[in-house]
Every structure is written in C-alpha cells, then in structure tokens.
Amino acid sequence: MLYCIFDSMNETRTIIERISEYNERQADLKLNSEELGTLIVALKVAEEKSAMLHSIIESTDDAILSKDLNGIINSWNNSAERIFGYSAEEIIGKSILTLIPLHLHKEEPGIIEQIRKGIRVDHFETQRLRKDGTLVDVSLTISPMYNSAGEFIGISKIVRDLTLHRKAEVEGKRLMSIVESSDDAIISKDLDSIITSWNDSAVRIFGYQAEEMIGQSILKIIPPERHDEEPRILAQLSQGIRVEHFETERMKKDGSLIHVSLTISPIKDKSGKVIGLSKIARDITDKKLMDRKKDEFMAFVSHELKTPLTSLKSYIQIARQKLTNTEFIATALGRAETQTNKMERMISGFLNLSRSEEGLLKLLEEQFDIAQVINFCVNDAKMISQVHEITLNTPHQVWVNADKEKISMVITNLISNAVKYSPNGGKVVVSCEVFDKKCRIKVSDEGIGISKAHQVDMFKKFYRIESNETKNISGFGIGLYLSSTILALHQSELKLDSEIGKGSTFFFDLKLD
Ligand code: ADP
C-alpha cells in the first residue's frame, strides 16, 4: 500500500512539474480553450491527489520521512514526531544520522548506494535514536524518489515503531498460553457461525481436532433441536445486549450429548464493531450427574429414615396396649432398640458424609480392644438377620489406637453389606488376624460377588452397582465411600477379593498399639 502512495506521489509530482512547465511557457504560447480546459482539469486532479496523499501520510501510525542524496531530511510527518520526539521544524534540514545510533552509521552509505543502483532494499528491522537519547526498535521500508525526468533525487523511509507490536506479540503469546492451558473449551467464530479457533480443551471435550472444526459451522456441535439458540444469541449480541452465561447441551464427535455451561462474548474490531463471538464451554456433565445423584439420595434418605421410624412408632403403640404381656414387651423393645440403632447409624453416616464433603471429618483416637468392638458389631448384626450364619474369629484381645466409633462404623457397614448382598443367606465370617505389628480385619460373605469392572468404582461417592441381583436391595452408595475415607484418615486402605456368584471378602489393616 505504501509503495502505491509513493507511486501516486511521483505521478502527482510529474503532473505538477508539467503544469509549471506550461506556466513558464505560457507567455510564448497561445493556448486554445481546449488546451486550457485540459490544463485546469489536470491541475484539479493534481490538487485532489496531493490533498489525499497528504492526509494519508499524516494519519498513518508509521513515521514517513524523506531525505535528499546528502542525507538531509526534507519531509517529516506527524507519526515521525510522535515516534522520534522531534517536531518537523526541529529536524527538517538536519542529517538523517541524527536518528541513527552511532554504531549503525556505517550502514547508511551502503543502503543509498544499493538504491542508487536500482537494487530493491527489502524492509528490515533495526534500531533508531529518539530525541531523548533512547533507542527504539523499528522496521524500515526504504524507497527511491525520482523527479519527472526520472532522476534519482532522494530516499523515502517508512518507519514502523515495533515497541507496541512487540508488546502486542508478548501479550498475544500470553493470552494464547492461557487459552491453550484452560480446562474449558475456548472457541471463536465469525458472524456466520464459522469456527475460527479451537483450543486443546475443545479437542478433549468435543473429540474433534482443530483441523476438523476450523472453517466449519458451529452447528456441528449443537444438537439439531437446539439449532435455534445460535441465531438468537447472535441477534442479541449484535444489538449490544449482554448474554448471561447459561447451561445447555452440546454434541460430541461420537454423537453423545454433554452438559455445558456457556459464556459468550462479542469479539470487536478496533472501531468497536462486532466481528465475531468467543465461546467458553465448561463441561458440567459430571456436576449434573452428581446433582442428580444428590437429589435421588435426598429422596432416598427421607424414605429410609421414615421406615424405621414408622416401625418404632408401631412397637411403642402396641407395647402400650399390651402392658401386661411382659414377653411381648421384651420382644418389642428389643426390636425397637434394633431399629433405633439402625437409624442412629444412618444419621451418623449422613453426618460423616457432610463433614467429609466440607473436609471436617476428624478422628478422635483412643486405645481400645478391637476384638471387643468386632464382637459387639457381630452381635448387633445377628439381631438383624436370622437367615445368615454370622461367625466371629478373633483373638481374645487386640489393642489398637484409632477412632473407636468410626472404626466400628466401618465394620458394621461391611457386615451389613455382607448380609444385604447375600440375599440367599449363607455364612458371614468376621475375623481379626494379628501379624507384623498390625491386625487385619476381614469380613467375608458367600453372596452375589462383585465383577472386576465394578471393583474400580465402587468406593466412589453414591456409586451403586445396578444389576438384576441388586435392583431390590436398598442403599445409598455412601457406605464404602465413607469407610474408605475413614480408613484413609487412619493411613489404611479398604481392599477386597471378590468373585461373581461366589462371594466377597473386604479387609483392612490397623497398626497395633
Ligand atoms: P449401598 O450398599 O448403600 O448401596 P455401599 O457404598 O455400601 O452402598 O456399597 C456400594 C455398592 O457396592 C453396593 O451398591 C453394592 O452394589 C456393592 N457392594 C457392597 N458390598 C458388597 C458385597 N458384600 N457384596 C456384593 N456387592 C457389594
């Protein structure tokens, strides 16, 4: 573009020179009206071109200056004043060397020589000197200037200040690395919904590589029934109306749907005109799943707490009616106590769950005999199930230092699972072995067993195995999660051996006191 300006400048100069030639010869010439008309039109065109060029030169961000063959500066635009700090009055008539750092002075004659020989000088990056003595990084474009006779009369220079450019480059790189390291998909598109950028997380979340998406319509990742979202958002943003972030669904390469939270912002050009949109998409599928599980959990909790409460209430009511039948009262009170214990365990489970979610689950360690605790848990379990043969295999006394209440919760939970997931009854063995300054607590059953695939996830919060065997067994999917959390606080780990259809053995170790 700048070469064009200089071509036009040369052309204008030629016209002006021809006009002045006419003027000089005017006295000797007798111009007819046609010649006079041509002369006036040429003059007008020259004036307009000159005014236009002047305004381009003065409004550009680059310094545009020219010098004669002796290196004396003879023109200087506004940006030259801004970049170098000299006004036109101060610098015109001075040597170009004023602007060149001393160590680069030797380059100047070579460049002039090259141009004189008609060899084009490609633009290059170098440094120049400001009025205040500081150096500025610049990019230079140098062109020869000729008069109407085609004689080489000087050199024009276009000087671009690279400081801002470099800053923008650094800033650009910084933003690029933020975009690339973000966990969210960051996508930009033009006003025709054509994707113009696609970061690494977009690849991870949607499964499409950047090459597959750049140049394609964004509709590729929008489920067909939601295609109307796109024009609505575009219309809103182009009217300058802010789009609040919202939750919606998008489609992955494999056709599956994911829940995303979208933040959409306009991309504007220098003049503030909206030229595209940027989208930040956060994958909230896991969060949605967790929310759904929590809702199910809450519904379940209310139901499960009501069941023992209703039965407690009826035992109390009947016991009141049959105050004289002491045998019945003894049975009723026994069952009422069992239900109360069950409810108590459930409530402390929920409390522990909410404590662990807030990171507030703490241990209250004390010395205790774990053999006695196991004994107590087994007796408790025997009250719940009559169809299982629950046996105990522990040494007389085993002293540990741990949180007694929480460890007893873990054991009770393992025994209750062993009973629950052996619907056809069978043996449940609870044992404690002592070796290597530690004791190993084991709970084995002859129940439905657990496949290897499920063994990976079953310690996760709310995880329940959904199968024909488990569909009629109630539970929250928090027992194993809480047990492993409690054991982790004791620097221990819940492990298991299991085989489908044969049974399971859950076990963990505690250090001896
Ligand atoms: P809940 O029993 O309340 O569902 P848990 O966290 O205690 O929750 O157990 C998670 C899942 O692991 C259960 O839903 C069940 O499918 C499986 N599971 C736990 N213990 C056993 C066991 N002894 N035998 C077979 N499956 C079990």
Q: What strand line-up does the widest sheet have?
A: 2-1-5-4-3
Structural class: alpha+beta
> Total number of β-strand segments?
17
Proportion in β-strands = 15-25%
- Mind summarizing the main beta sheet? 5 strands, antiparallel
Q: Which of globular, elongated, flat, extended, rod-shaped describes the shape?
A: elongated
C-alpha termini separation: 86 Å
Show unreliable segments.
1-8
Instruction: State the helicity in percent bands.
Output: 40-55%
Task: Give the overall pLDDT as a whole number.
Answer: 85
Bound molecules: adenosine-5'-diphosphate
Number of helices: 15
Gyration radius, rounded: 43 Å
Kindly describe this structure.
The protein is an alpha+beta fold and 513 residues long. It is 45% helix and 24% strand. It contains 15 helices and 17 strands. It has helices spanning 2-25, 33-59, 78-84, 88-91, 107-116, 162-181, 200-206, 210-213, 229-238, 285-321, 326-357, 370-384, 404-420, 452-455, 479-489, and strands spanning 63-68, 73-76, 124-129, 135-146, 152-161, 185-190, 195-198, 246-251, 257-268, 274-283, 366-369, 388-393, 399-402, 426-435, 438-444, 495-499, 503-511. The strands form four sheets. The chain has a five-stranded antiparallel sheet with strand order 2-1-5-4-3. The longest helix has 37 residues, at 285-321. Bound molecules: adenosine-5'-diphosphate.
